Amino acid sequence: MRIVAEHLSYTYNEKSPFETAALHDVTLTIEEGEFFGIIGHTGSGKSTFVQHLNGLIRLPASLKHAKKHKAKKGQPLPPAPVLKVGEFDLSDKKTDFRALRRHVGMVFQYPEYQLFAETVRDDVAFGLKNFSEKKLTEEEIDSAVCAALEVVGLDFDELKEQSPFELSGGQKRRVAIAGVIVSRPEILILDEPAAGLDPLGKKEILELLHRLHREWCKTVVIVSHDMDEISENCTRAAVFSEGSVKYVLPPKELFRRTEELTALGLDVPLTAKLCAALRARGIDVDCDFTTEDFADKVLAYAASHPKKEGDA
Amino acid sequence: MKDVTFGQYYPRDSFVHRLDPRMKFLFLIAYIVAIFLATNFYGLAVCTAVLIAIIALARVPFGKVLRSIRGILVLLIFTALLNILFVDGETVYAQWWIFVITREGLLFAGLLSLRLVLLVLCSSMLTFTTTPVALTDGVESLLTPLKWIKLPVHALALVMSIALRMIPVLMDEVDRIKNAQRARGADLDRGGLMHKIRTTIPILVPLVLSALRRADELGDAMDARCYMGDKHRTKYKKLHFTWRDLLAFLVGAVLITGVVLLRIYLPAPF
Ligand SMILES: Nc1ncnc2c1ncn2[C@@H]1O[C@H](COP(=O)(O)OP(=O)(O)OP(=O)(O)O)[C@@H](O)[C@H]1O
Ligand SMILES: [Mg+2]
Questions:
Q1: What is this structure's pTM?
Q2: Of B177, B179, B202, the CB nearest to A126
Q3: C-alpha span between A290 and A270 (Å, rounded)
Q4: Mind listing the pLDDT tens digit for each residue in B42-64?
Q5: Tally of domains within chain A
Q6: Which of B129, B175, B184, B203 is the best mutation test for A, with the most CBs of A within 10 A?
Q7: In this structure, what CATH number is given to the domain that contains residue A42?
Q8: What number does the ligand 1 atom closest to the CA of B175 have?
Q9: How far is CA B15 from the centre of its chain?
Q10: Cα-flanking dihedrals φ and ψ of residue B11, to 5°?
């Protein structure tokens, strides 16, 4: 399933003193099979955008759009917003949003805070039961839950009867992710999946996402603050700033724009900083900004320029 | 959840917003006394006019204020029906089994409903125009005399301010949890009563847990900053009465006097 968004705009609490513009004319296409990153300063509209993708935030109906802009005469009508996820047209009110949500899994920030059931099994099975058309047998539920727990690296037999509230933080988050992927969505969206975890926990979650991308969900979209996370993992990344998309580029090209990103208040990966520092000293290393590639390229450079020193 | 407007501050820079919170409290009390002293429609008409003037002066949209009645709508209809159907009187319009509809019953129901509505609207105007912090400061200051009878006034005021502060936070939390469960296929927008009850569990459990977690964190944060109650504490914002408050005081006094005079010179309709 391909995600196509054109001219999306969104304002929270419209026409009240608490009005905040969150998105402004966002146009973005995410192809099937991508591991797509969304980065941006806090409040730049990343979460608002991804909540559009499974219909939690709805587009205004086209009639309303035309009406709203009719008042300002003399100006041409701004293009109507378009949002399509595969076959689903999200600007159509009659779209079956529950069917859509089955195909677009969404893991919110701190997903462990939405756990509620008495046992891990019941919690993971919640989404499965909601989305299935027929009533599932206990065996079918068990096998689906077992598979989902296994792919997130947890043991079904050990945990099934446990209360989800007795688990450790990292385990809870895995259970919550299992609760979303259990219905086998084609697209998986994760909002800050590694927030609040220690470096090891972060690494494990990212490995898990790669595994999911390989074996489970065709497309993975992650929202993140962490540039290293993006540079090491994504095929392409979109940079959000003040509600609009500034760049959509593969990380390799993105992080060559160190200065522009810094001007937007964003950090860049450590490797990009080092590259920029080296370039300032007249050493141009061309790498894709993953730690390994950077080290290789610097060593290669050092080997081919034996007179100068090129410390990694 | 956005329709729970009671207790929500509506930011504006107006005469009413700038009044001293203590004065607003006293005015509210005076207003409530006036409502119950008014035994006829003339008195209540005066009260209504004053309320409309306050709302206009505060520049809060009327629709927004009116929405706060929703919370008591059931109570309102119930008491009105009770009065219409059971109050005895001389002019009987209709009679059936144990029910009687009389002129007196209708009038009484009208009076009572109007009182309830005015009461709720005026109280919600207090919260529309006063920040929770100012509200608590006002309560604390007004209750200070009760410290003499060993009432923990400061702690009470703090509890109140935290509760008020947490209403919007928890409302946001409800939205977040609802969205998370919707994303897992929960059907929260349709279905009958039983279905609605079943679907509250996935919302209620995380909500209660989150409220408890927040309470814990807040307690720890207060401990970490050596909060010890009101001993040796000074105020960041001191409250002062100004000419505005004097004006409000006069209006309140005139209102009560006026209502009392109307009660004496224009007798009750029954
Ligand atoms: N429920 C809401 N009600 C009102 N305003 C909101 C709401 N959610 C977000 N906003 C506002 O919309 C803007 C965009 O918010 P959004 O959550 O999309 O940002 P973000 O990029 O996800 O930020 P972060 O990195 O902090 O999660 C912000 O200005 C925010 O204050
Ligand atoms: Mg966010």
A1: 0.77
A2: B202
A3: 9
A4: 889 999 999 999 999 999 999 88
A5: 1
A6: B184
A7: 3.40.50.300
A8: 1
A9: 20
A10: -65, 130
